[in-house]
Amino acid sequence: xxxxxxxxxxxxxxxxxxxxxxxxxxxxxxxxxxxxxxxxxxxxxxxxxxxxxxxxxxxxxxxxxxxxxxxxxxxxxxxxxxxxxxxxxxxxxxxxxxxxxxxxxxxxxxxxxxxxxxxxxxxxxxxxxxxxxxxxxxxxxxxxxxxxxxxxxxxxxxxx
Length: 160
What we know:
By secondary structure, the protein is mostly helical. 76% of the residues lie in helices and 0% in strands. The chain has one domain. The relative contact order is 0.19.
């Protein structure tokens, strides 16, 4: 069930982020609570620890980017917290790595396309270019669930 919640939240957040450049709190906060509740109700306190571990692992790296004003929005942090809470540790770590890989691939393709067309942006222009994060999070979530690479070769426990 936590997997279904994570996929649903990731896809809805991607749609919102693409159209409005915002990820609504009405989507992320309930998903955090539902994810933690599912872990706790299926495996007890150990499950709650698994859900909280996923929340921390997925959200803290983006929290640093948000705190240092590196282009990460608060909605991005809350989305990753929600996905981490639903997926639990260690699947949340794999989802985070897959999300970053998808984003990095997009950045390389965008830079190559720009270079191929002969245009190049200054560093200042490149920093002002904003890209919605939620579609990468959705792709990373689906990748981690369907084609696990095995970044975290630890037993995941029982998924809710």
